[in-house]
Amino acid sequence: MTDIPEQPLAGRLVGDEHHLLVRIYYEDTDFSGVVYYANYMKFFERGRSDYLRLIGVHHHELAQMDPPLAFAVTHIDITYKAPARIDEIVLVRSRSTGVKGAQFFLHQRIERDGVLLCEAHFDAVCLGFDGRPRRLPRVLLDAVNNILTDQNGT
């Protein structure tokens, strides 16, 4: 069994990445005990949400802004490499790759003991509750730009 260090509920920021541990439960698997492919999307969503939370962007606060804001995924490029199984603990790694206008780009990986199980590139857009694109909130722009600056060493 993997020796897993204690981790806060929302994961932690490690360098330019967010790390979130996820246990695989019975509900996540198909009849053979392997994670059902669509459930990786849920794990990625948890990683993105907690990543945003730790850099100061909270979904409930976005919804209370004037105008109210939310995020929607507009594109996903996902590759499955190996299965995760019931009772395993996997690491969801999330990293910003850029921001532009209303768009936010991320790369995410799911690993078990350093072995890549699944990875995805996500494009998300910030929307008003009217469904129209809105510029990203300053708190997200500043946080992501700081992370990207650190990644590039500038």
What tags apply to this protein structure?
3 helices, 23% helix, single chain, alpha+beta, Thiol Ester Dehydrase, Chain A, six-stranded antiparallel beta sheet, 154 residues, globular
Write up this protein.
The N and C termini lie far apart (40 Å). This protein has a six-stranded antiparallel β-sheet with strand order 1-2-4-5-6-3. The chain has 154 residues and is α+β, with helices and mostly antiparallel strands. The chain has three helices and six strands, in the order E-E-H-H-E-E-E-E-H. The longest helix is centred in the N-terminal third of the chain and has 16 residues, at 39-54. The radius of gyration is 16 Å and the shape is globular.
The main sheet comes to: 6 strands, antiparallel
H-E order:
EEHHEEEEH
Number of helices: 3
- Termini separation comes to 40 Å
The overall pLDDT, averaged over residues, is: 91
Extract low-pLDDT stretches: none
Beta-strand percent range: 35-45%
CATH class: Alpha Beta
From the 3D structure, determine the CATH topology: Thiol Ester Dehydrase, Chain A
Please give the number of β-strands: 6
Determine the structural class based on helices, strands and strand pairing: alpha+beta
Helix content: 10-25%
CATH architecture: Roll
Our Rg estimate from Cα atoms comes to 16 Å
Total number of distinct structural domains: 1
